[in-house]
User: Fold this.
Amino acid sequence: MVLMEAMAMEVPCVATWVNGIPELIRDGEEGLLVAPSTEEELAAAMERLLADPALGRRLGQAGRQRILAEYNLKNNCAQLAENLPPAFGRSIAKR
Assistant:
């Protein structure tokens, strides 16, 4: 959740390749990913962002766009409602 909030605020993110993080952040597109437990890689990724402000802006903007496009609560609820089986009765999406 913290990564999603940071991305929504255009904060360039550096994270590790664990759990669902690579599904949220694509390395070099919306942020930078490093292997878990590699302090050297983490430091290098952070130094890369500090040395290249344009990269940080690009990653931050791309991260925000991804969050807005793919993690919008209203849109996701509407999609879910459209895919519920008819056994649930009237359309929830029309509420």
Summary: The chain has a mean pLDDT of 90. The longest helix spans residues 53-70. The CA atoms of residues 74 and 84 lie 16 Å apart. The first strand starts at residue 13 and ends at 16.
